[in-house]
Amino acid sequence: MSRTSKYPEQFRLDAIELVNSSDRPLRQIARELGVNHETLRSWVNTAKKEPQAGPVADPAVTDEVQRLRKQVAELQKEKEILQKAAAYFAREMDR
């Protein structure tokens, strides 16, 4: 990426990450960020061509990710149970 851009490097990296992780159209993201859509497209295309340095495996981060995934699974299960209970009680109230 060009170092002479009027946008800070971290802003560009965050914008690229947003495009790659979002299901929204690139044009919409560009509009929300206040960037020309072709500029954003150029950043994304350039990033795809650059060799990616893999993330450094930090054991503390890996443990935290595993813990959070387990917590998310538990919360999803609780949510399912509560949705079923709410549906049950809604049926009971209609009787």
From TrEMBL:
Residues spanning the signal sequence: none
User: Which keywords are on file for this protein?
Assistant: Coiled coil
Q: Which residues form a coiled coil?
A: 65-92
| Taxonomy of the source species | Bacteria, Bacillati, Actinomycetota, Actinomycetes, Pseudonocardiales
Establish whether keyword Oxidoreductase is in the entry.
no
Stated name of the protein = Transposase
The record's listing under InterPro entries reads:
Homeodomain-like_sf, RD_transcriptional_regulator, Transposase_8
For this protein, the record's Pfam families field holds: HTH_Tnp_1
